[in-house]
Amino acid sequence: MSIELRHVSKRFGSVSAVEDVSLTVADGELVALLGPSGGGKTTVLRMIAGLEVPTSGDLLVRGERVNDVPVQKRNIGFVFQSYALFKTMSVFDNVAFGLKIRNTPPAEMQARVDELLKLFGLDGLGRRLPHQLSGGQRQRVAIARALAPRPSVLLLDEPFGAVDAKIRQELREWLVRLHRELHVTTIFVTHDQEEAMEVSNRIVIFSRGRLEQIGSPRDVYEQPKNEFVARFIGVLNVLELTVRGGAARLNELSFPSHGVAEGETLRIGFRPYAVQISSNLQEHPHSAVIRHVYFLGVQLRLELETPSGLILRTRIVKDEFLRQGLEQGSSVSFQIREYRVLSTGANNLSPEVATVHSAANFAEGI
Amino acid sequence: MAHGIPKGPQVAMNSKSRRGIEEPEFIRKVLIGIAVGFVGVFLLLPLANVFAQAFAKGWSAYIQSLQQPDTRSAVLLTLLVSAICVPLNLVFGVIAAWAVAKFQFRGKALLITLIDLPFSVSPVVSGLIYVVMFGAQGYLGPWLDSKDIQIIFAVPGIVLATLFVTFPFVARELIPLMEAQGSDAEQAALTLGATGWQTFRYVTLPSVKWGLLYGVILCNARAMGEFGAVSVVSGHISGVTETLPLRIEKLHQEYQSVGAFSAASLLAILALITLGLKTWLERRQAAEQALGQSDSLSSHEH
C-alpha cells in the first residue's frame, strides 16, 4: 500500500517535532527512518499510524487523504519500542486480540494465530504470559500481534533497541526474511545507521525534524547530500584547511584552494577507505604512524597520526594488513585518494574530487 | 554476632554485608521491645477490650443488644451509605486516575492536590461545608426548602459527607499504578482496532484490578467508619439518621456499655477483615510486580 506525506509538520506546543516533510513509500517497500534521537522520526511513524495528528500538511494512503481517519480504521500494524504486550493476557490472547476485536470466527482466529506462532517460532508458547518470555520472544509476539489482522502496513518503532547485540543481529536478518515472505509495506525507525543500511531498501534520514535525504543505502553512503548525512552515515574524516599561497593547507597536508580566497578556511571530508596506506615509505606522498588498531573481523580500523599530530581514520582488509607486515606503531606512507569539499551550513556537498585516478571501492568502504 | 573468621565463601558474603551495619544485640532487643510493646498497649489491648466488653454479659446479651431496632437500623443505614458511596467513588476514582495518568493538561498538579484535600481537612470541617451549603441557614437552604428537599439532618447529607471524605481512596491507589504503566499497551490496543471502551475493558482494567480492589476496600472501611463529618450533618435522629459509629457514641453516652461495645465489635470485625484483605492484596501485587520486574531485566533468548 502506498503512503505519501505532503509537507507534513507537527508541533507540540511551541516545540516543532517535524518540519515540512514530504516523502513517498511505495507498495511492498522496506523503509528505514533514520536519525539521531529527537530527530522527529518516531513522530512521523506515529502520524502514519494515526497516533498523532499532523499540525499541517497531508497524509495520503493510496492517494486518499487520511489525516482525520482514526487509528482504529487505518489498518496498520504498529510495534512499539517497549513491545507494549498486554501483560495480563497469554501469548495466544495477545496475538488474537486484533482478530477478536474484529469479531473473527473462533476457528479462523485459532488457525491464524497458530499459523503466526509457528511462523515466528513461538509454537508451544501460546499459554505463556509475556513476563515468562525472553526479550527476543516478546518482540516476536509483538510483531505477530501487529500482523495478525493482516494490516496493509507494518510500522516498527526502534524494533531492535531493547535486545542485546547478538539477538539484534538475528532479528535484523529475520525481519528481512519476513518482509520477503509477507511482502507487507514496512517502515521502521532506528537511530543505528548500520541497522538501517543492512535491513532497508531505502533510508530516510532525519535530523532536528527535517528530512535530510532519501535514498538507497548505497546512495546515502556514496552520494550524501550534505555534511550531516555524510557524517551520520559511516565514518568521515573532516579537515579544516586554511588557504595560504594559493593552496589549502593544514600542517603538512595541502589541497587545491577550490576558489576559496587567501586566508579563508575550507573544510574537506573523506571516507576512511579513501585513505590508502603502504608499508613502503616511498610509495605515497605523506607519512604517518599507526597509533591504534581496532579489530573488526575481516576488516581493521586504523588510526593514523601524522608527524604534526593530525589523526586520520582508515580501514584495511586484515589480509592486506598482514601481507604488508604492519602492526600498531608501524610507520607508513599514505595518500588521500578522494575527498569532498564540505561547504559550511546545510548546503549541498560538492561532487567528490579524485586526487588520484582509482575507482572508489564500495565493498571496502563502510 | 560478627566475630570469628568466616568459613566458606557464602558465609563470608553474608557476614560481610551485615557486619558493618548491624547494631549490638541489646539495642536491637530494646528497640523491638518498645515497638511491640507500644503496638500491644495502644492497639491490641483496646481491640481485645472491645470484644471483652461486648461479651461481658454473655453471648445472648451481645446478640440481644445487636437486635435493638435502633442499632439494626443504624447498621442498615451504614450499609446503605457505603453501598452508594463506594460505587460512586469507584467510578470517580477510575476517571480521575485515567485523566491524570493518560493525559497532559493544564492544572493537572492542582487536580492531584485537590483529590488529596479530604485527607488533609478535618472531617468536622468537611461536614460543616455541607451544612453551610445546604442547611436551613445555608446558601441553598431556602431554595431546597421551597422544593421540600431535605439534605442536612437527612440521609442525602450523610451520603454527601461520606462521599467527600472517602473520595481520594480509589484515585490515590490507581494514579501511581497507571502512571507507572504508561499508555503504550492502550495505544497498541487502539492500533489493533479496539475502541476506547474495549481498550479500557480488556487492557487497562485487568492491569490495575488488584490496586483497584485495594482502593475499594479502603474506601469501604472509611465509608462505614466515618464519624466526624457524618456527625455534623446527621442530626442524630435515632433509627433515622444514625449510622453505626454515631449509634455507638450514643449508646456509650447512655451508659449502655454492652450495647455500645457490641456495635463497636462489628466495626472492629470490619477493620480486621479489611486488614486481612489488604495484606493479602499487597502480597499478590508484590508477587506480580516481582515477576514482571525480574523478567523485564533479563532479556535472554531461550
Describe the structure.
The complex is a heterodimer of chains A (366) and B (302). In chain A, helix 2 (91-101) runs parallel beside helix 4. Chain A has helices spanning 41-49, 91-101, 106-119, 135-147, 165-182, 193-199, 217-222, 227-232, 318-323; strands spanning 3-12, 15-25, 30-34, 56-61, 64-65, 76-79, 153-157, 185-190, 202-207, 210-215, 237-244, 247-250, 253-256, 265-270, 275-278, 286-295, 299-305, 311-317, 331-336, 338-342, 353-354. The longest helix of chain A is centred in the middle third of the chain and has 18 residues, at 165-182. Chain A has 366 residues and is α+β, with helices and mostly antiparallel strands. In chain A, a hairpin with a 5-residue loop joins strand 17 and strand 18. Helices cover 25% and strands 34% of the residues of chain A. Chain A folds into two domains: 3-227, Rossmann fold; 235-365, OB fold (Dihydrolipoamide Acetyltransferase, E2P) (Beta Barrel). Mean pLDDT of chain A is 85; it is low at 356-366. In chain A, the strands form four sheets. Chain A has a six-stranded mixed sheet, sandwiched between helices. A six-stranded antiparallel sheet of chain A has the order 13-12-11-14-20-21, with no helix packed on it. In chain A, strands 15-19-16-17-18 form a five-stranded antiparallel sheet. Chain B has helices at 9-19, 25-54, 59-66, 69-102, 108-120, 123-134, 141-146, 155-166, 168-181, 184-191, 196-225, 228-234, 244-253, 257-297. Helix content of chain B is 78%, strand content 0%. Chain B is mostly helical and 302 residues long. The chains are: A alpha+beta (366), B mainly alpha (302). The A-B interface holds A 49-51, 71-72, 74, 76-78, 80, 82, 84-89, 97-98, 101-102, 131-137, 145-146, 149, 162-164, 167, 170 and B 182, 184-185, 187-195, 198, 202-203, 206-207, 291-292, 295-296, 298-302.
